[in-house]
Amino acid sequence: KFSAMKTRTPLIDVPQSLSVVSSEQIENQAFLEIGDILRYTPGASIGQGEGHRDQITIRGQNTTADFFIDGLRDHVQYFRPLYNLEQVEILRGSNALIFGRGGGGGVINRVTKSAIIDENFSTAMAGVDSFGAYNVSSDVNLGVEDRFGFRLNAFYESLNNHRDEFNGERFAINPTFTAQFSPDTKVNLSYEYVDDDRVVDRGVPSLNGAPLRGFDNTFFGDPDLNLTTLRAHIARGQIDHSFSDSLSFNATIQYADYDNLYQNLYPIGFDQDAGNVSLDGYRDATARQNFISQANLVYELDTAGIGHTVLIGAEYGDQQTGNNRSDSFFTDSSDDQISFLFSDPIVIPEVSFPVFSRDRASDVNFLSFYAQDQIDIGEFVKIVAGFRYDRFDINVADRIEANNGAADGNDGLLGRIDEEISPRVGLIVKPKENISLYASYSQSFLPRSGDQFLTLSLTNEALEPEKFENYEIGAKLDFNEDLSLTTSIFQLDRNSGTTIDPNNPENLILIGSLTKGFEITLNGQITANWSVNAGYSYLDAGERGRFVDGVSANRNLQQVPKHMFSLWNNYEVNKDLGIGLGVTHQAGQFASISNDVNL
Q1: How much is the pLDDT for 530?
Q2: What are the backbone dihedrals phi and psi of residue 561, each rounded to the nearest 5 degrees, phi first?
Q3: Smallest Cα–Cα separation from 438: which of 470, 476, 468?
Q4: Which residues of the chain are under the pLDDT cut of 70?
Q5: What residues contact residue 123 under an 8 Å CB cut-off, 6+ apart?
Q6: At CA 417, angle to CA 411 and CA 422, rounded to 5?
Q7: pLDDT tens digits for range 158-185
Q8: Residue 582 CA neighbour count, 13 Å, CB half
């Protein structure tokens, strides 16, 4: 079950760099969240995410929204658990043909476990770490008469770490039902509830171009004010039907309801001479309802000795979002920011969150059609070619602007319709069955409303979407069915992109960027008892086209380590005992596009 092509395609025949992390690897390495996985994924890294969400950077492109579950969007900001997954797929490089808008640097797709109709089993797991955090999970499957299956996955986690005041808890439950109505028709139903409450920890301030030293445990906030909550309901139905050995169809419908709140105080400066620390803060609430449907038809045929695997698909979505933000207000400064005498622990001056600085509702409708042909020319050459049409329609109601009236030229009602064609083409040459050499080109785009629909304004309402272009060549080698080596060289162009203004975090600035890089991975069984997962990436990511006083002044992109290396070893001593050992390394990276602070 692999979603990169939406067809039954061996990984060696996919003209794209990717990683697949199985449930077995998740268990062996005791992974609990996406950040754990990305530490062992070349070309991808995890950010702090303001202490309340998954935030990733793939090939230099930072995102909070390029997440999918069983091929459908899951882009609300939260920490995604791994308790119910069959595998996690990390696809690197732009590829709107398969996943639609966004995904400029790549996407992460989680494949969930489904009920098995002919098995009965139950498992339980528990873990504890050196800070006192612990987790428990269970997986129970019941099969009935080789026609029906019911499965229940559940987990609970109590959170803790080395930081003062950090704590929290989260739990989730996911029942699934499978019905095999005939040898050719299968239906899967799934419902998931996720509940997450935790302290929001934004870390330490910077000093002299680096993180503040000597206060690794100090919490620069208030545990009663720094908080986040998530309640998510995700319901999904899928049908798979085979008309014949060469023609198959699948369709999925998903409804998801997310209610997310985060509130935080965070450090924005530290004056060592005066002994002062400066704080800012805000409260942000989002409610989103997603309805998404997708259908795919796959047809395999031969014409004049040339094989074809044709994919034709369509997707429709209706996404409604309400979001508001309240700035902090400190009584002593009569402002949203304050500087005061530093102490450990910090004593927070009186603060509240009284007035909305943002209050918006958006309605997004998107409609997509896509087609792709995987062409087999003899035994040695394959071509993958296709395109996707997307229509993205957003309407935004800015309640603050509406209440201010239209005299300033803004009545608070904004909207835009974008229609984009995204091509993809790949050439694969296979001198041997276990070796593939490939070259590929693909595109993606991101509307000006941003990946969370919050940035549409009078200024950018008239602008075309951002564009991403990925050029890639690579090689894949299967030493045997259990051990593979992959490598790629790529270039990713981003035109008219946006990033946070380092001089004013409430604003965005327009930039172009260019990422060039190299990746190599080795994954599989070295011997019957010893398995490895090793990876290295080199990324050179920077601005493009920035001039200051007539002189080129391009900066490095933020949160992009130039070198990343990881190695995991797992050794099975016998059928009852395994030993694992891993190491990861990241080179320095800049905290923001200003390049003032090095991590």
Answers
A1: 95
A2: -65, 135
A3: 476
A4: 1-4, 497-510
A5: 138, 139, 140
A6: 150
A7: 999 999 999 999 999 999 999 999 999 9
A8: 23
